[in-house]
Specification:
Arc Repressor Mutant, subunit A, elongated, 6 strands, 47% helix, Gyrase A, domain 2, alpha+beta, 6 helices, two-stranded antiparallel sheet, 2 domains
């Protein structure tokens, strides 16, 4: 039950900008998990969740550096070495890469299996990422920016 709830929490914070424990509890309730504030607080601590801020100053729960999505180092390395910049346009992310590197970076991004990403398409040096919400796009812009810095 606890692992299922933790998986649900990760799914929620990866698809929504969740600013408070109350918001998180409401999303969990929609998923069928009734939790107390004490349980939720304990889950957040055990999972190593932290609050981060997006470019607009809105805070949200996120995984800490040590608890980031577990993907192999080679994908992170390919992504980091390929990407030059990331920008946002509504629900879309536009990721600029070195010439010829977008397909590899896009494959690495796809391997991360973000629930908030509807689809990706890569050209030679550009990746378009369609996100479910503008909020998720803003969160991804921040996370990708942190990754490539």
């Amino acid at each position: 039950m606890k692992k299922d709830r933790h998986d649900a929490i990760l799914n929620i914070i990866n698809t929504h900008l969740v600013s408070t424990q109350l918001e998180l509890a409401q999303y969990l309730k929609k998923e069928g998990y009734e939790t107390t504030q004490a349980t939720l607080s304990r889950d957040i601590r055990q999972m190593g969740l932290v609050k981060k801020s997006d470019s607009a100053g809105r805070s949200f729960y996120s995984t800490s550096q040590r608890a980031e999505i577990s993907i192999s180092g080679k994908y992170i390395s390919v992504f980091k070495q390929s990407v030059v910049s990331v920008d946002i346009a509504g629900h879309l992310l536009v990721i600029k890469c070195f010439a010829g590197m977008a397909p590899a970076a896009c494959a690495a991004l796809d391997s991360m299996k973000w629930d908030g990403i509807v689809g990706t398409i890569a050209g030679d040096d550009t990746i378009f990422v369609a996100c479910r919400t503008e909020e998720f796009a803003a969160e991804m812009e921040y996370k990708i920016g942190q990754l490539i810095d």
